[in-house]
């Protein structure tokens, strides 16, 4: 299934725009684009909502026919327990996270202990935990950890854009993780020369216009045959003013949806 995530609404949620979009507003915008899956990922206000606000947001998603996934950073037991509870509120079948959180950098052994301790609860609840590929942890180390634990409810959130900062090739990341992928973050990326031709900037690109060989990802991972969701997000830099930035963000979302829908 193709879905949208909060990173597709990064600037629309931002305090830099005159009227930041609410979570329910993002659900509504998602439905208007004929999409019925939304990943609430690294969305700080979620952790500040009280029980009543959470129930209202979950009810709004259900009323709109929008299925919800969740995303956080870190695998500390308290965090994973909190997000399992939130998964229950939102009827979410997947939680995306990363090995390192804002305040924790577990050793490999500690990470394995934490995950082994929490996964029986995720398994019992029917919730999948997907750990994202990113530059702070080698893809091979992430794969080895998941393989050692060997749970059907633990896998990879594949984002090959992130690993470039570790000097890994996106294509290698895709091939190494293919059999373990539970979730895909779909965005394109490219290098651009900085002004004066001194150095490069690595950032986002409209889907299909950058360096991401998405066809290779589809062939290697086969997400649509395996029921793996593809979540649209962007690396869009500020475009100089709020109006231009929001317009561009929305255009990139439409472009990405058209691209994904056109591929088989």
From TrEMBL:
Pfam families: AP_endonuc_2. Keywords: Carbohydrate metabolism. Residues 27-255 form the Xylose isomerase-like TIM barrel domain. InterPro entries: IolE/XylAMocC-like, Xyl_isomerase-like_sf, Xyl_isomerase-like_TIM-brl. PANTHER family: HYDROXYPYRUVATE ISOMERASE, XYLOSE ISOMERASE. This is TIM barrel protein. The lineage of its organism: Bacteria, Bacillati, Actinomycetota, Actinomycetes, Micrococcales.
